[in-house]
Design brief:
Radius of gyration: 20 Å
Number of helices: 3
CATH architecture of one domain: Beta Barrel
CATH topology of one domain: Intramolecular trans-sialidase, domain 3
Helix content: under 10%
Distance between the termini: 26 Å
Length: about 375
């Protein structure tokens, strides 16, 4: 039986907030119907910050409630104690379609996980899809090409599948776009908005039934109607916040660091990551899952430099009866062992451990 988002958030708040605070104020759903003009929310994530504030995130499903490909964004809500007084931000928002419009041709953010490092910095990891793309039709590939020995985000012209363009490294706030390795008139900013000859490129926004709304919006490379667009595979989008989730950084796309060309899907296990100590240094960890070779399996991504660079650990070795391990959550036991609980195809949750905080897991 499906339970409501309100129920799940109440359970999460019971786990994440002092009981006295709940008893005094009562748990208040941060994403009530109508919040931010949205009728439906899904896939909650929750983290109690080091100062006691509570941060929640959820998909803005607008009026439809379904997965990508569809018009989806991600909102965050911050409360001083998790019992109300929520303050909102929308760190992951797309404008190719109007808020609330339903279309399988929209770009999409979906499925988020949160963690906070010892420094107090908050990390939000989310799947990001090109217009018209989602898990069911994601194509095999990293979305990257190698230019001068470096992995770069690949681009193709509107209506084309020739990915001969690439986003080179950022120099300040802009990155040049190369064609077959040569400079072009195009650049992108750190929000992946597209510029030509220094002028931002624009396009018509669409609404229901793909009818133009009359609004002009900036092109990003995640819009299929942009002059240049990314490969139709999921991109892992990382944002950070240094004020508890009120404001957010520009996105860092992890695909060049962690996604394989042999994978159609590599995506976030929505919920929570973990920050642990390994040999006296902090390691940031997010559970993810892949469908390489047509079978879903869990793994983790980790960073040892505060989130600047990321690596992927070994895949969880599934027992055959599990059929798969996909969406997972991680906890730290009292002895420091990391335990990963995973969704399976066998009607129960699998468990595996990692004692060294490193790359390998016991068989699930």
């Amino acid at each position: 039986m499906k339970k409501s988002l309100s129920f799940f958030l109440t359970v999460l708040l019971l786990a994440a907030t002092p009981m006295g605070a709940l008893a005094a104020g009562g748990a208040v759903n941060p994403f009530e119907t109508g919040t931010l003009g949205c009728e439906r929310f899904r896939i909650p994530a929750l983290w109690t910050l080091r100062d006691g504030r509570v941060l929640a995130a959820a998909d803005l499903r607008w009026r439809h409630g379904v997965d990508a490909p569809q018009n989806l964004d991600v909102a965050a809500a911050l409360s001083s104690d998790g019992t109300g007084g929520w303050r909102y931000s929308v760190p992951n928002r797309l404008d190719d379609y109007a808020d609330g419009a339903g279309s399988t041709q929209s770009a999409a953010y979906i499925d988020s996980a949160l963690l906070q490092s010892d420094s107090g910095r908050v990390f939000l990891l989310t799947d990001l899809f090109l217009s018209g793309t989602g898990y069911p039709n994601a194509q095999k590939g990293s979305g990257c090409v190698t230019v001068d020995g470096k992995r770069c985000i690949a681009l193709a012209a509107r209506g084309s599948d020739d990915y001969r363009w690439a986003i080179a490294g950022f120099d300040g706030d802009r990155a040049p776009v190369l064609e077959n390795g040569d400079p072009t008139a195009y650049t992108v900013d750190r929000a992946y908005r597209l510029y030509k000859d220094g002028v931002i490129c624009t396009m018509a926004q669409k609404g229901d039934d793909d009818i133009p709304t009359g609004k002009t919006v900036a092109q990003t490379v995640f819009y299929a109607d942009a002059d240049l667009h990314v490969f139709p595979t999921p991109f892992l989008c990382l944002r950070t916040s240094d004020d508890g989730g009120l404001t957010w950084s520009d996105p860092l796309l992890l695909n060049p660091m962690v996604k394989r060309d042999s994978e159609a899907f590599l995506g976030v296990c929505p919920g929570r990551g973990a920050a642990v100590q390994i040999d006296g240094r902090e390691r940031l960890i997010f559970p993810v899952y892949s469908n390489e070779n047509g079978k879903e399996h869990a793994l983790t991504l980790y960073s040892d430099d505060g989130g600047m660079t990321w690596q992927r650990g070994e895949d969880v070795k599934n027992a055959s009866l599990l059929k798969k391990t996909s969406e997972s959550q991680i906890i730290t036991l009292s002895d420091g062992t990391l335990r990963l609980f995973s969704r399976t195809g066998a009607h129960f949750v699998s468990v595996c451990d990692r004692a060294d905080g490193g790359d390998s897991w016991t068989k699930s």
